[in-house]
Amino acid sequence: MGITVTTTAGTTALTTLTAVKDALQLTVDTYDALLERMIRAASDAISQYAGRVYARQDYVETLPGNDWPHLALTNTPIVGTPTILIDSEPVTDFVVQDADAGMLYREVGWVREAWVGWAVERYTLPSTEQHNVNVTYTAGYLLPGEDDRNLPYDVEEACIITVCAWHRKEQRGGGDVQSRKVGDLAITYADQTNAQGVVTAAGLPPDARALISRRVL
Fold first, then answer.
1. Which of 106, 117, 193, 211 is 20–30 Å from 69 (CA)?
2. Segment 7-27, tens digit of pLDDT
3. Where are the domains of the chain?
4. Among residues 113, 94, 48, 103, which one has the least CA distance to residue 75?
5. Model pTM?
6. How far apart are the C-alpha atoms of 102 and 70, rounded to whole Å?
7. pLDDT tens sequence across 145-184
């Protein structure tokens, strides 16, 4: 299986500076640059924790063909109708059964068919050549700040909670900060480990993890 991004999102930020400043009740622009970096870092952390890309992008994905009627795409939700080739031949006899789950349905299965006389002959390639279904599609959400945003609000709230928590710890003087990185912002807090000493997900606060945990792939 292989996935190529053909059109990348203009932004991957899961919230806006305005939303974060409203949550923090900030009216000055003193911390704007820092908060913008924190938003990017928090958005990346949430995406990594959830195991998915939220922003809407265009993809080409190659999958193995088989006799099963269902085919699951990696990125969701599917937007519109994908373009599909099986062994370089276009197929159109399928439907998007569940856009949110990335599920396509084709009654005859994901194999190539050809008319031989009056009969339909089905071609199934050997296992070493099975990655023969090529899907071109668009998937993902429109994010806060974009027209017609449709990102789930609990995902945005998880980002806001994370940025607010990080900023408040910074303002307390960073006494519980173990390490910092300037630039793309990497902050490690002393409370990132649980009772067993396992590092928690990218320093995300518990409330943020709770909001997105049900969406983890």
1. 117
2. 999 999 999 999 999 999 999
3. 13-54+145-213, 57-139
4. 103
5. 0.79
6. 10
7. 999 999 999 999 999 999 999 999 888 875 444 455 545 5
